[in-house]
Amino acid sequence: MRMRLTFLLLSMGLLLGCYPKGDASQPIPTALVPAIEATAKPTTLVVVLPGRGDDLNGLRKARIAEAIHSAWPDADVMLTGLALSYYMTGRAEPRLHAEVIEPARTRGYSTIWLVGASMGGMGALMYDRAHPGMVDGIVLLAPYLGDKDLLRTIEAAGGVAAWQPGPAPATLGPANFQLELWRHLKSWSTDPAKARNVWLAYGDSDRLRSAMPLLVPLLPPEQVSMRDGGHTWTLWSPAARDALLQARRATR
Questions:
Q1: For residue 20, what pLDDT is reported?
Q2: In whole angstroms, what is the distance from residue 7 CA to residue 24 CA?
Q3: Nearest CA-CA partner of 126 in 191, 170, 176, 76
Q4: Which segments in the chain show pLDDT lower than 70?
Q5: CATH numeric code, 16-145+194-251
Q6: Which pTM value belongs to this model?
């Protein structure tokens, strides 16, 4: 088990630094921020998946809920504390489904979007892989997309459309989750409709920016935004607002 967890941490570049790790023995922490304009019960929910350095308090300080409300004032926002420990158990995606998304559908939300930053962007993509069509759209904020060796392999193949991942494994685990993430993204190259409600934003000095040129061709060009800045909520919060404004106009 220790080797398994170490591999996962190494592959995500998360062995160093101080950041909220969470307690995966407990339910995923959540905080509902109600819609600021609603004449009836809101039917839209935007779920925020944190980066590795965030907990609920960090998301509040980032003012991501306010940014979302400036685009969708009639949507509820759910901040989540889906921190590193949940990914370490290998059950971040099924727990997100069982503890957050499925109950939200049961409560009557007809439209659900995911906003995922960095590690949370990876989580949003892995959720979309496991539960296609369960959410209505995704905003990716500088998502973590795998280690450099895999990214170089895909680049050397001529991009994700030309890259051949090989046979699918019987089970998903720390040794293959990055490969399976990209297998899922490759499916967007053959079925562009899968990416029609996916927005991407990142900074021109973001430490994860080198992976973005592999992802960008899979998305509609107007749904990609590279901005001045780095790997930070000072870029991500306004970028999420602008993406959701654009998405709302496109779906009216």
A1: 66
A2: 18
A3: 176
A4: 1-20, 39, 251-252
A5: 3.40.50.1820
A6: 0.92
Q: Which residues pair with 117 in a beta bridge?
A: 141
d(CA 223, CA 8): 31
**Distance from C-alpha of 196 to C-alpha of 187, rounded to nearest angstrom:** 13
Residue 240 tokens read as: 């999420």
What Å distances lie between residue 66 and 46, 78, 141, CA to CA? 12, 12, 16
For β-strands 30-33 and 76-80, DSSP reports them as antiparallel
Backbone phi, then psi, for 13, in 5-degree steps? 65, 35
* C-alpha to C-alpha distances, 42 to 28, 70, 203, 245, nearest whole angstrom: 22, 15, 32, 17
Nearest partner of 117 among 236, 244, 247, judged by Cα: 236
CA 114-118-123 angle, to 5 degrees, is 50
Domain boundaries, the chain: 16-145+194-251
- pLDDT of amino acid 9: 47
DSSP the chain: -HHHHHHHHHHTT-SSS------TTSPPPEEEE--SS-SS---EEEEEE--TT--HHHHHHHTHHHHHHHH-TTSEEEEE---HHHHHTT-HHHHHIIIIIHHHHHTT-SEEEEEEETHHHHHHHHHHHHSTTSSSEEEEES-----HHHHHHHHHTTSTTT----SPPSS--TTTHHHHHHHHHHHHHH-GGGGTTEEEEEETT-TTGGGHHHHGGGS-GGGEEEESS-SSHHHHHHHHHHHHHHHHHHH-
